[in-house]
Amino acid sequence: MLPTLDARLTAAAELVLPGKPVADIGCDHGKLTAVLAASGRYPKVIGADLRPGPLAKAKQTLEHAGCEDRAELRLGDGLSVLSAGEVGTIVLAGVSAQTTWEIIDKAPWVSQPGGPRLVMVPATRHSELRRWLWEHGFTLAVDRPVQAAGRWYAVMAAEYTGEKKTPTFTECLFGRTGEWPEGEGYAAWQKAKLPRFRLGVPDGSLLAQEIDDLLAGLPR
């Protein structure tokens, strides 16, 4: 039986480039790996995790879904399980923003023109991941707000272009989520966290003014 994906993993699956190999890094229970393998849209599906326990669960998931012969499971740290050019899409779902960019940073072959698409679902600190991507030459192809289990996620697809950008705080806060119908709800959730964040920002600074304008509802 094919596992059911929640809204965030469903959105992530939709951003994987068809017709090219895909790797689900940090595959955990293997639900996304199984759905990708069962779809038949990819010539190779790789599920990888740092620990043997989750990989054992992923193996069971693949067996129950009847697609264990269409996916390969690998044990290893981050992108060390892959070789340059092996996959067209890398999925990094369910880890923090910092862990996400640390994984990317350890694999220089990802930050090359024509490199793989990165599909990311950071568990926390969406804004900081957007800033890191822009400052390191990645373009956000998709930045979709998704609500699952009562909380908001940003499901991002990024590709390396080499064009580095220094974004504003507001750009990092919302990204491209305003392009989606759910963007208003995501924006309200992001804004609700600003008063507490503002307490740690020095009065009179440019960042303080930008946050104050956001809280006052002034256009930017």
Oligomer: single chain
Do you know the CATH architecture? 3-Layer(aba) Sandwich
Structure annotation, total helices: 9
Number of domain units:
1
| Model regions low in confidence, pLDDT < 50 over at least 5 residues | none
List the defining traits of the structure above:
220 residues; alpha/beta; 7-stranded mixed β-sheet; 20% strand; globular
Topology diagram in text:
Blueprint: H1 7-14, E1 22-25, H2 31-39, E2 45-49, H3 52-65, E3 72-75, E4 89-93, H4 97-105, E5 117-121, H5 126-135, E6 138-148, E7 151-160, H6 169-174, H7 183-192, H8 194-198, H9 206-216
Parallel strand pairs: 1-2, 1-4, 2-3, 4-5
Antiparallel strand pairs: 5-7, 6-7
Helix pairs in contact: 2-3, 4-5
Short description:
The protein is of the alpha/beta class and 220 residues long.
Polypeptide structure, described:
This protein has nine helices and seven strands; from the N terminus they run αβαβαββαβαββαααα. The chain has helices at about 5-15, 30-40, 50-65, 95-105, 125-135, 170-175, 185-190, 195-200, 205-215; strands spanning about 20-25, 45-50, 70-75, 90-95, 115-120, 140-150, 150-160. Strands 3-2-1-4-5-7-6 form a seven-stranded mixed sheet, with helices on both faces. The longest helix is centred in the N-terminal third of the chain and has 14 residues, at about 50-65. It starts with 6 loop residues before the first helix and ends with a helix. One of its GO terms (molecular function) is methyltransferase activity. One of its GO terms (biological process) is methylation.
